[in-house]
Design a protein that fits this description.
Blueprint lengths: L2 E6 L2 E6 L27 E7 L3 E5 L6 E5 L5 E6 L5 E6 L4 E6 L4 E7 L8 E2 L5 E5 L5 E6 L4 E7 L4 E6 L6 E5 L4 E6 L4 E7 L4 E6 L5 E6 L4 E6 L5 E5 L16 E6 L5 E6 L4 E6 L5 E6 L4 E6 L6 E5 L4 E6 L4 E7 L4 E8 L4
Parallel strand pairs: 2-21
Antiparallel strand pairs: 1-2, 3-4, 3-30, 4-5, 6-7, 7-8, 8-9, 10-11, 11-12, 12-13, 14-15, 15-16, 16-17, 18-19, 19-20, 20-21, 22-23, 23-24, 24-25, 26-27, 27-28, 28-29
Length: about 350
């Protein structure tokens, strides 16, 4: 295997010259690999939001659809409570936040929030859900007991995704319109500062030590590494795209990104090539380039660490990837346009 690395004005270009891979199985035709198993524990939940069919609960092994949460069209984001008993879902068409009982998949409460809510996050104590507004400038804060909006924070234009730090002390909300990340104190419910991202931020993966994050940016076929202390952004290009490559919606050449729990691998989903890529951290050496179905969108990891799931928006499918073997294990049709996907172990009923 040979890797090429060249730097141009702070942008690192990584070329995967002879990176081997195994092609994906046909959609709906699971391929089982010898010696590869997935945890059979029944408490593992796997949910995926479909733009047209609501939120689907999948079998984490076969990827078969087990249940449907009827949210209406265009559910956007998913977040589970710290005790893993409640699932919160944002719905763009009705401007709502839904609360779902994980034990039954029943919607138990709902509340109105700002226009076009996107990816929510939850405070470490489970008290507040933070809801960015894609068509507004405020991030709504919802009390999870009363399911009411208790505060709205002026983050910026076209808010998109939100995240809670591993220590629970900070919440991060991205603004597409202002190319920044707002840092929120989840106890005081105040904005502490705003960080410029050097581009339009799409999806972010926080580092566990709180020093920074990896994120995808519009108009970049790659990802960036952002240092929160210096506000310095280093851009990494996966591979220069050939002339004539169609421009994706909102110039989102790369979208989903995931940093593994051991902080040693970062995975990126490319809309431009219909592949997912992996790099070592901190060396940024290429690990894998795997062809998936059309439109890889979002990642989530099985609680055991294998497999890595990726939603395939244009293919209407979900794929399971074995990170250790660097292969696509299974790819199954699950809906029309699956986007956000989330796996976790359910808490006690």
């Amino acid at each position: 295997m040979r890797f090429e690395l060249a730097a141009f004005g702070g942008v690192v270009l990584l070329g995967l010259s002879t990176l081997g891979q195994l092609g994906p199985p046909s959609v709906g035709q699971p391929r089982r690999l010898s010696g590869v198993t997935t945890s059979q524990r029944p408490d593992v939940r796997l949910y995926v939001a479909d733009r047209y069919e609501g939120v689907l609960r999948l079998d984490p092994n076969s990827l078969a659809v087990l249940d449907t949460i009827h949210t209406g069209r265009r559910p956007h984001g998913l977040i589970v409570s710290p005790d893993r008993r409640w699932l919160y879902i944002t719905v763009e068409t009705t401007n709502e936040l839904l609360k779902v009982d994980v034990a039954t998949d029943a919607i138990v409460a709902r509340t109105k929030v700002g226009p076009v809510p996107n990816e929510p996050t939850i405070s470490a104590n489970g008290r507040y859900v933070f809801v960015p507004q894609r068509a507004g400038t405020d991030c709504d804060v919802v009390d999870t007991e009363t399911m009411t909006v208790v505060k709205s924070l002026p983050v910026g234009r076209e808010e998109h995704n939100s995240y809670t730090s591993s220590d629970g002390r900070e919440v991060f909300v991205t603004s597409l319109g202002d190319s920044l990340i707002a840092v929120i104190d989840p106890e005081r419910l105040e904005i502490k500062r705003k960080i410029r991202t050097g581009g339009i931020p799409r999806v972010m993966a926080l580092k566990r030590d709180g020093s920074g994050a990896f994120l995808t940016l519009s108009d970049l076929h790659g990802f960036a590494e952002l240092n929160f202390k210096s506000d310095v952004t280093r851009k990494v290009t996966i591979w220069p795209l050939p002339p004539g490559t169609p421009r994706p919606l909102l110039d989102t050449y790369a979208h989903g990104i995931l940093l593994t729990p051991d902080q040693r691998e970062v995975w990126i989903a490319s809309y431009a090539t219909d592949k997912v890529y992996a790099f070592t951290v901190p060396e940024m050496e290429p690990l894998a380039a795997l062809t998936t179905g059309d439109g890889p969108h979002w990642f989530t990891l099985h609680p055991s660490g294998e497999p890595l799931y990726v939603s395939l928006e244009r293919a209407g499918a979900v794929a399971a990837i074995h990170r250790g073997l660097r292969v696509v294990q299974t790819m199954v049709k699950v809906g029309q346009a699956p986007t956000r996907i989330l796996a976790f172990r359910a808490g006690p009923s």
